[in-house]
Amino acid sequence: MMKKRFAAAVTIVLAAASIFGCSNSASQSAQNTQAASAAEEGSTTEAVASEKASSGADASADKGGKTFGVTYWIESDFFKTVADSITSAAEADGNKTVVVDAQQDSTKQIQIIEDFIAQDVDAVFLNPVDRDAVAPALRKLKEAGIPVINFDSSVANLDLVDAYVATDNLQAGKLCAEAMIKDFPEGGPIAVLNYPANSACLDREKGFLETIEGKGFEVVATFDAEGTVEKGQNITSDILQAHPDIVAIFSINDQAGMGAYAACTTSGANVSIYGVDGAPEAKQVIAKEGSIYRMTAAQSPIKIGTNCYDVAMTILSGEKPAEFQIDVPAFTIDSTNIQDYLGAGWQ
Length: 347
Description:
The chain is an alpha/beta fold. It has helices at about 1-15, 35-55, 55-60, 75-90, 105-120, 135-145, 170-185, 200-210, 230-240, 255-265, 280-285, 300-315, and strands at about 65-70, 95-100, 125, 150, 165, 190-195, 215-225, 250, 270-275, 295-300, 325-330, 330-335. Helices cover about 45% and strands about 20% of the residues.
């Protein structure tokens, strides 16, 4: 038992070292109240952008010499990978990036954006700390004619950005459900670790629940683990005591999933876990023979970054993107293909 507790503790420490792509915006569920004012500003913004494009038409044909601002809600392996992907693509074209971590501080992120405007960057790549509070800064970017590519977690008013790039989170939830159905064809009692304050995680939960409907599963417990290891572990411990007969747990991210894994490992519960992210720590435990961490619906921060850069260059060339919202497909990582993804960090 002591060995099991020590192994679980090590797992928690490793998992806590990384924060995944499900961001913790302070007011994720607020309504879109700025749409009307954004529409009023639209014509002014288009005029400014048009003036910038026409005055530098020749320069826009040349990909090099541009500067891009990148800011995300908190520094983590996931977001650093997105930023590195953008930077690599930019540098290949002779451009550069200025990457600034907002450190979970909405006020700081607004100041970062104002600094980007002062630097006259060519475009901004934004993952918001607070999806509502960032709106005034987005209006200033529009007034300055600077395109905004929102990534991973959406701002409240998408009318204020030029494109949105994120994982197909409905699909991610569906993949977890399909794997669970395959493992438990007769269904059974299950638990869900959700995160209702986050729009991406809501989509994952929705995709999962819609897919298991009518498949014999009974959700006996649903709790908000806030996407964290600590809460994932504590909540799962309580669930196991109240519902010792559960057969599986769906977690909206691998971080809470790793907490669930630690709780199950400590108690010796044979409960299968299904998560979302494709995080390096989750891949390590999936690789263990007979692991109860059955699979992860993997995101690709590298592809998110390249898609962000590509759509920015399309906008800066004066063209309209084929799609406003770009969904990057999720994919399954499990025991059948885990060896293809070990040792490579994020995919």
